[in-house]
DNA sequence: ACCTGAACACCGTTCAAGT
DNA sequence: ACCTGAACACCGTTCAAGT
């Protein structure tokens, strides 16, 4: 009953989650799906496109959940700038968790984010949160980029260590300290 | 007259500089040196070790030059905290330049830095500069890690874009804004 | 001590030909 | 429309055997 693009992406997602980027080869993926390697190229243009789709899937939960907050209309009377700043802190923490949860997630998301820095989540959501917190749009966007790049640098380091069974006990606290410094 | 380790590293360095990480294979390196691939394994344990040596070579200039400043004895009477803070700004900018100058430099240095975050340059030099600027040792080390991880995140993004011929005009300014935010 | 030859177990991608 | 078969041009690493 004919392979489709979704099955290809799902199988790739499973390999990435379970075995990491080093094991996510087009040949391995084809084997897992019971087809010849060439068959995959009917459903995806190439490996790069496949990785871009996986990156989108990793950050998708950020857009679907809370903190997408009031963009239209004025902020509710009770919403102070401090609360919106907490929104940014929460948002970047959720981004980190999402990327950290997938093996080699940072490597995959880093490429996607480099291609579209201001369009890809969590950048637009962060920029909105920081604007709500009282920043002008331009510095808000710059601060959002700083947060995302710092986070990707941190998670890349952590996942590299995890892949080598080195300790990572201090890294969550270091991440939080970095976020505080950037938003201070 | 027998290959030695230095020739292997020099040739690898040349390939990395000129063609990037994608072209730095053990087989290609062997071809360039006029030997069989297996011969390389007499001089280096594996590709990972070779990349670690290249990472060291990229950051070596940082240790050999200025801003290594007075560690022993009290600061000169005229040296205010503000000056030492400028030292940190200068140091992280020089780190960025060194990594940015080598194709895919951020990928190579990121791994080395993940393995030894506090030992590898520029972390110890940065920590020293920030301590001179009046910070306590613990927060100084955390701030140094934040700076280095943000910088590696930024340069990774920029080099990804460069490898795809996408514009990078805004990225130097975004880097500087990030550094200011972190040190503010 | 240092290197070759040859193998092992892989890659991503293309494309004529089949159904 | 969708897939196979087969090829092209590669990988990193090991190791007996040669000099």
From TrEMBL, chains A, B:
Protein name per its UniProtKB record: TetR family transcriptional regulator
InterPro entries named in the record: DNA-bd_HTH_TetR-type_CS, Homeodomain-like_sf, HTH-type_TetR-like_transc_reg, HTH_TetR, Repressor_TetR_C, Tet_transcr_reg_TetR-rel_C_sf
DNA-binding region per Swiss-Prot/TrEMBL record: 25-44
PROSITE patterns assigned: HTH_TETR_1, HTH_TETR_2
Domain HTH tetR-type: 2-62
Swiss-Prot/TrEMBL keywords: DNA-binding, Transcription, Transcription regulation
Entry keyword DNA-binding: yes
Organism: Kocuria salsicia
Coiled-coil ranges (or none): none
One Pfam family, short name: TetR_C_1
Keyword presence, Transcription: yes
